[in-house]
Design brief:
It contains 28 helices and 10 strands. The protein has 559 residues and is of the alpha+beta class. It has a 5-stranded mixed β-sheet, with helices on both faces. Strands 1-5-2 form a 3-stranded antiparallel β-sheet. The mean pLDDT is 92.
Amino acid sequence: MSTIPTPALAPLYYLANFQTALDWISARYSDLLSPEEGEFIQQFSALATPSRALLVRLAMRKGEHFRSSKIDYDEIGDITQAAQPLCALGWLRTDAAIDLPTLFNLLRRDEILRQLPAAGTLAPSGRKGLTKAALLEHLMTALESADSSPREQPLRNWCPGLDDSLYSLTVNALCDRLRLMFFGNLNQTWAEFVLADLDIFRYEVVAIAPESRGFRCRGDVDYYLHWHHCREAFEGGQPIHDVLELLGEPVTSNPYLLARHDKLVFRMARQLEREGAWDSALSLYRNCGHAGARQRRIRIFENSGSLQEARALAAEALKAPESDSEQQLVERALQRLGRRLGLPGQRVPAQQPAGRIELELPRPDHGSVERAVCERLATSEAPVYYVENALISSLFGLLCWKAIFAPVPGAFFHPFHNGPVDLHSSDFRQRRADLFDECLGHLQTGRYQEVIRTHYASKFGIQSPFVYWGLSQEILDLALLCLPAEHLHGWFERLLRDIRANRAGMPDLIQFWPRERRYRMIEVKGPGDRLQDNQRRWIAFCARHDMPVHVCHVQWTET
């Protein structure tokens, strides 16, 4: 593929993008907007261009406090003049009280020593070598000892001799709520527009109906913000009991919000389990719908000595496992529990063994055991490639592009999705059953090669949850020549059964014999390395379906 020149951005590209987002929100979420948000959108659109541009520039920067001397944009011009209407609306303040740590973030070290009286009391020898952090600690101690000193005050009070002023943004939270409504999450930022403008990221164009949106009601927006606050509290180290009390029960029927709630509860239960608070962890797991919660209950019962409870729950899980992963773990648990309880051995279906390769290699300079095996096994008639999870996943994504990017209601609601929102939902395939049947049907009719090649050429570089565009034309051609359609069908069906779990664990290498139109996959294990559970599941699947897969065990030769 030829290199595409990077397009130039218009001077006010960021303002145009922000206005596009506001127009999108107004058209699709007008009934969800609070009075404050609706008024903001109206007032923002009525402002002069410099004022709108300044607000967007500041909203896209980190933090909420900005020294005027650090705000300089040619396309905006006079910052003081542009800021006046924003100050009149209360969106910017010039008199915000700030604490000492915030002040330190705004000042250079030399400014601190010149402007703060307590810093000036240090002898020159005491100042030398002190970092800003050490100076802050010194001044915080001085501030604590002076009971009458204010803990927060405007910049001009902290530094009366500083020839500068401070602008403080007051609408950060409001802009975050609008960003949340547009993207449906707080992980994506306004930078998505820029990355798309620069062609760094390209997204599939999906027909998004006006009624397709990420939130159904205002309560969903509020609950997401509440959940996000609780997650930040947990990740910030707040006691789990306090976070749980703050989180409460989910007050939404939105399946994606419920999934986020359950995942956070699972993470907190897992932390409690690590800390040995087993009863509290069990209580959380019992009411948690996140994948793996039942298996963790089995482990707690087992570790705490409640073997009969563990065995009963494991037997129940084995009747209807939620995934291949749970089945694998439950079968092992039943074997362990049977031994500990003195029961007859639990019969587990034997896994067909993979082929085995033993290699002794000199330790490579590049440090990659996979590359070293590639170099040893490859011949001119049978090249070997390091593809890991990329090849099969990419072939699936290319064949099923039409189904994956189908405009299913609620699956896409803004232009920057790299895949459908419901990708990991249990009904993902069911909601697109006819389309997946059509795509996978090409494997039977023989059209699959044409479809894959067409999408490889026409969609190249577009974001996809499955396709790795580093996949070369050479590998693609060899794969379509050597991989039987029935093997592709088996892999793709397994992917669809559990996308989250089954996109990983595929063998590292693939070797092709193009003259014979055959292949083998190779999982590489260096000295002391063992097969992971997801790798064992993939290898067992391939072995059951007579798909050639080998495990290569490498030892380094003695030097």
